[in-house]
Specification:
Structural class: alpha+beta
Number of strands: 7
Distance between the termini: 9 Å
Bound molecules: adenosine-5'-diphosphate
Helix content: 40-55%
Number of helices: 7
Radius of gyration: 21 Å
Protein name: histidine kinase
Strand order of the largest sheet: 2-4-5-7-6
Largest sheet: 5 strands, mixed
Subcellular location: Cell membrane
Organism: Actinoplanes regularis
Domain Histidine kinase: 20-242
Order of helices and strands: HHEHHEEHEEHHEE
Length: 260
């Protein structure tokens, strides 16, 4: 448990640092993009330096995209938190997910009815599920299956805590792939911003860091269950916004790997 606290503090410190850098960097980029546009206009179409200006603009734009990812991670407050039906929200982007991961991956989405809502920003949730699905896709170059499950879960007050969360009602989102899996040292660092095992230009190292940011801001928990050769399941637990005593749980706590 101490291990998890240390990991959390490290990630929080990294978030503050990254947010500060991203903010200043964004201002500098706005100046670069604005000035490049002015020069392009002054030179006029067909000027031999136009391709150079375009390269500057393209590079600055790529950097701006990266910093906006960073600012998502660093943001302390959720943008527009509202009560969301996560199952419905994920079904709403099912087509997008299917197209993004491609034909050779067997994709299924299992969501039960009558699940409790959670308080979350809808686009944060969509971006997170999309990023996790893209990661899964990258881990399955020879095909495989991606399963997204959404279920409810109650952590009873008297039981030995199986998760670092207070007792109560939760929504469990599992994004499971049958890809390469991760060795323990990758699992240990995967949630940190900028940690990537992908070649330069292909990974930002911010997908899981952003998921961590979104989930912890919502007072939830994210855990990586992964093994080389077997695949990866990202387990996300979010506190239920309402408790209705009547509906039964549809999930059991998943085995969790230490993430710190
Ligand atoms: P990025 O995908 O840009 O590298 P992430 O923060 O999303 O950044 O992931 C960090 C690292 O964690 C990846 O580079 C990869 O090594 C590992 N990883 C993440 N998701 C998976 C997955 N589903 N299967 C295997 N490895 C993964």
């Amino acid at each position: 448990f101490m291990h998890q606290l240390e990991a959390r503090e490290r990630l929080e410190a990294l978030g503050v640092l990254a947010g500060g850098v991203a903010h200043d960097f964004n201002n500098a980029l706005a100046t670069i993009l604005g000035t490049a546009a002015l020069i392009a206009e002054d030179l006029g179409p067909g000027h031999p330096s136009q391709p150079d200006i375009e390269r500057i603009q393209a590079s600055a734009q790529r950097s701006a995209d990266l910093t906006s990812q960073l600012l998502i991670f660093a943001r302390q407050e959720p943008r527009r938190a509202e009560a969301i039906d996560v199952g419905a929200a994920i079904r709403g982007i099912e087509d997008l997910l299917r197209r993004t991961i491609g034909e050779d991956i067997d994709f299924s989405c299992q969501t039960a009815d009558g699940l409790p809502p959670v308080i979350l920003d809808r686009s944060d949730l969509e971006q997170m599920v999309l990023n996790l699905s893209i990661n899964a896709r990258h881990a399955m170059t020879d095909g495989g299956s991606l399963t997204i499950r959404v279920a409810s879960l109650t952590l009873p007050p008297d039981a030995t805590p199986s998760l670092p969360l207070p007792a109560g009602r939760y929504l469990h989102i599992a994004v499971a792939d049958t890809g390469t899996g991760m060795p323990p040292e990758v699992v240990r660092h995967a949630l940190e911003p900028f940690f990537t095992t992908k070649p330069a230009g292909q990974g930002t190292g911010l997908g899981l860091a952003n998921a961590y940011g979104v989930v912890t801001q919502a007072n939830g928990h994210i855990a990586i269950d992964s093994e080389p050769g077997r695949g990866t399941t990202i387990n996300i637990y979010l506190p239920a916004a309402t408790t209705t005593a009547a509906d039964p749980d549809t999930s059991t706590p998943a085995r969790t790997a230490p993430t710190g």
